[in-house]
Specification:
2 copies of one chain form a homodimer. By secondary structure, chain A is α/β, with parallel strands linked by helices. Chain A is built from 11 helices and 14 strands. In chain A, the strands form 4 sheets. An 8-stranded mixed β-sheet of chain A has the order 1-4-8-5-11-12-13-14, sandwiched between helices. A two-stranded antiparallel sheet of chain A has the order 2-3. The first copy, chain A, has a two-stranded parallel ribbon with strand order 6-7. In chain A, strand 2 and strand 3 form a beta hairpin. In chain A, helix 4 packs antiparallel against helix 8. The two termini of chain A are 34 Å apart. The interface between A and B is large, with 52 and 51 residues.
């Protein structure tokens, strides 16, 4: 439960809203979603010019609950509450901030767990694969609904950063500032490899039932747990794992068995269990596919990121973290170089942090000061 | 099937031998193996002084079949055939080379898949966990059997390198030269984390049956496949994955489903399948535990590798590979520093290679020339 003081420095209690879209959405795959819902939250007030809106794009396991609390009894606030709120780096006293759960999600937007009105049962395996391009198209429709023709800024970390890039390419006139954090222009073979092991863990779980586990009243818990354990290794740096856990034994001595011996095992299994109890396996699968698919250069004979980013007109702030090996600083520098090739305004910072990829979610004074300084020059 | 020319430059057709040990072996865990077999191969001829023997210690999924061919119809020779043979860097014209399958293995030495004479059934879950220290103790007994009081050299890569280190500490007078390749003095938290995800994949496979799957006439194939897919990512460098597979699509276009789309997925799944068809899951589990447990500093109040290596008197050749992120060069340098602290003779080389951890198994001219040069100065 938040302390009164925490509530004061946060956006406080927030209530999600749902936007229903009755017009069909043709996805990149060719599949058509006849209608869909997007659940979202807003913080701050949209000004009279409707020029102070900021869209927050979420990553693999994120959602629309970016800041504040749903109830005074909540254990934790929204996932980017340390960054967004009154007087915070993204100041809800100045900006109108929108968090949205992506299509295919499992927190209220239409996804595999939603009831398919055509059958009366959960979509399950019949929910189509969606892409970053589809998400951005659906987010643009949400902006239309809210009568926001141009965002002051769009911000996202990791997979969220890919959505920011896609916004700058697909709707260049609709965003003034792009904040791309701990991201990459496209996945490497190693990134895809980790995703595929995670997917295979879920797909080969006997409880998966080809994605229709809801109808079987079961759940591929084992697979999702493994996927999350593996993912977690890639979110942390070797450094921080070493300093936090090292080779510390839980019971002080080896027990020569397969129960938890090292603290790192206990931590990882706990993270896997917690996630498997709260996330949908089909959503996890499709989010990893959206990651794999994203590649602004995919339709070029010779991949050329500079050419792919040529349509972008926004100003950019690109941030990376020194120990992030999932999306290492050199991946951010690829984006920076491509923007410079197009003579765009781009600021780049490589933050010294030992927290690996997860650093983008954490409170780091330099990182937050940088975003604060950047946002202070964004007019509303 | 080997070409005639390949057979000539190799040790040729070899036949494994089995040594039976009737005396009980007390393991580090306190468990006792009443009796056991070790399967081994030898190449070259033991000289009259019995002073030209070389022991090869294998890594996670290796075995005693180090060089040569079991039959002219074999698809592949032993796993280190490119290094060991007549005229090769480890020249069987000069040296008598021994490959041994470690205790707990699944290629002939006593392990979980062996029949427990007390029950008439496979050991399964009743096979005790073994450590690097136990392996080295059992290898020393094999040396006794072969009347080899002192090895000219002991060589190993990865987990094999840990056995080399342990030999130098536990039996310093029994080895003149230690070759430790792509290894580390002990695992990091991240190394253990990867191992634990692999183990959890096997342990939570419904076909695992607490390790007694033999009795259930089943096999935790899904789990072992995932474990190997994951392991494989850590054996390759990001570099080589990128240059070999990149983002190449198998069918040239996305199919928006969970079947293989990227070449890297095809490769990994193939590797997982192949391994799951040929290796024992209990052995895999126990080998990863031996890796986790090894730590020459574990009984010190303040971990000090220099103090731990103080007993060693052998000369050392330590080799690492630039893109190995499983056991990175800095891990080898820890060993080098500890040996220098003890004023031991140590040569160190960091080989430029883009093959990651797997480089230790591959033919690289610089790497092999280095071992050749080192071995040429080893007297017999």
């Amino acid at each position: 439960m938040p302390l009164a003081s925490t509530l004061i420095s946060s956006v406080g209690i927030v209530t999600p809203q749902t936007a229903h879209f009755a017009a069909p959405l043709t996805l990149k795959s060719g599949a058509v979603l006849p209608a869909y819902d997007l659940v979202f939250e807003t913080y701050g007030t949209l000004n009279a010019d409707r020029s102070n809106a900021i869209l927050v794009c979420h990553a693999l396991s994120g959602n629309h609950h970016v800041a504040g609390w749903h109830a005074a009894t909540d254990k934790n606030p929204g996932w980017w509450d340390n960054l967004i709120g009154p007087g915070k780096p993204i100041d809800t006293g100045r900006f109108f901030v929108i968090g949205v759960n992506n299509l295919g999600g499992c927190h209220g937007s239409t996804g595999p767990v939603s009831i398919d009105p055509q059958t009366g049962h959960a979509f399950g395996s019949r929910f189509p694969l969606v892409t970053v391009e589809d998400w951005v198209a659906s987010q643009a429709r949400l902006a239309d609904t809210l009568d926001i023709s141009r965002f002051a800024a769009i911000i996202g970390g990791s997979l969220g950063g890919m959505q920011v890039l896609q916004w700058s390419i697909a709707y260049p006139e609709r965003v003034r500032h792009c904040l791309t954090i701990a991201s990459a222009p496209k996945l490497t073979a190693q990134n895809i490899a980790f995703n595929d092991v995670a997917r295979q863990a879920i797909l080969t779980d006997p409880d998966f039932h080809a994605g229709d586990y809801y109808a079987h009243h079961t759940y591929p818990r084992r697979g999702l747990r493994l996927a999350r354990m593996l993912g977690h290794i890639t979110y942390l740096s070797d450094d921080v794992m070493g300093s936090k856990f090292g080779r510390i034994l839980r019971a002080g001595a080896f027990n020569y068995g397969y129960d938890v011996e090292f603290e790192i095992e206990s931590y990882l299994r706990y993270q896997g269990d917690k996630f498997a109890d709260s996330f949908d396996a089909n959503t996890y699968l499709l989010m990893t596919k959206a990651l794999d698919y994203f590649d602004p250069t995919q339709h070029q004979a010779e991949p050329n990121l500079s050419a792919a980013l040529q349509p972008a007109v926004a100003d950019f702030l690109i941030i990376s973290f020194t120990t992030d090996w999932r999306f290492a600083p050199e991946r951010s520098r690829e984006i920076v170089q491509a923007l410079l090739d197009n003579e765009r305004n781009v600021s780049y910072a490589e933050i010294v942090s030992n927290h690996g990829h997860d650093a983008f979610l954490m409170h780091d004074p330099h990182y937050h000061a940088l975003i604060r300084a950047y946002m202070e020059r964004v007019t509303t």
